Amino acid sequence: MKKFIVPFLVMFSLTFSLAGAGSYQQSYVNVLEPYTYTLHNNGTVFLGKVGPGQPFYVTISSETINKTGSLYERGWNEMVINNAPQGWVWVNSSLYNSNLSVKITPPATAQNGTYTFDLAAVNIGNYSQLGALHFKAVINVTPDVFVLSVHPKNISTGPGEPASVYVTINNTGVSDSPFIVNVTGLPAFNLSTGVIALHGTTQNFTYGIYEDEPGIYHANISVVSVSSPLVKESTTVNMTIEPSVLNDYKAIGQGAITFPVIFQPMYYIMYLISKLFG
């Protein structure tokens, strides 16, 4: 009889333990930005790449579950950074929002490489018996965070007549830091302009350039991050500046010349001629 009872008790105990283990639920953190990812305690997330000096955000949802699987829409009430590389600046999240974001900024002089920092999602006061969930975030610092393309590469226009250059920025980093578009290599003063290409997007911008004196010029179009001069790409556009009736017609479409209203139909036809033969 004893020989039967002992194996039965062992089997019952093992079955009960497995059932209990199967019902155990782990709290989680849903990372929303810069990429979507689900983490459990002591997990690690790779965020991608950022340029030196470029601020970026890590955003999580406040939603999670407890050990019994009960859902808490505001389980996490704050996200904090417990440890970051020396010289980095950060701001912990605000409290009790549905989404919690920390802002992180590497130094403008940060060396290329991979950096790790420690974060925690916190249930303030342990009110929901969730405590805190700790995780690591890894990011690569490099100035190579966007791809620049410019067209056309060859421009022919008249003195003082603006020409449109189309600038495309493919932001492959995690920062939404603005960029400055400017031109060098032309004697005439051309204004710079600020643009924003959000992380993970490709944005197109129109940039107008001109030169007063006839000649052949090699204009350097550059795009530089506001956060650091190390984050920069540039390309060359060839400009031929020469007076011609066709270039004057093109200038009409650029808005470089002002005419009385009664002449507008005529000048519209002139602009169409420039599109047909330019």
SSE arrangement:
Blueprint: H1 2-23, E1 29-33, E2 37-39, E3 43-50, E4 56-61, E5 64-65, E6 71-72, E7 78-83, E8 89-91, E9 99-105, E10 113-122, E11 132-141, E12 146-151, E13 154-157, E14 163-171, E15 179-184, E16 193-195, E17 202-209, E18 215-225, E19 232-241, H2 245-254, H3 264-277
Parallel strand pairs: 3-11, 13-19
Antiparallel strand pairs: 1-2, 1-4, 4-9, 5-6, 7-10, 8-9, 10-11, 12-14, 14-17, 15-16, 15-18, 18-19
Range of strand content: 35-45%
Largest sheet: 5 strands, antiparallel
Through-space gap between termini: 104 Å
Order of helices and strands: HEEEEEEEEEEEEEEEEEEEHH
User: CATH architecture of the largest domain, please?
Assistant: Sandwich
Global outline: elongated
Unreliable stretches (pLDDT < 50, length at least 5) are: 1-23, 255-259
CATH class of the largest domain: Mainly Beta
Q: Give me the CATH fold name of the largest domain.
A: Immunoglobulin-like
> Structural class of the secondary elements?
alpha+beta
- State the CATH superfamily name of the largest domain: Immunoglobulins
How many domains, as an integer?
Answer: 3
In short:
The protein is of the alpha+beta class and 278 residues long.
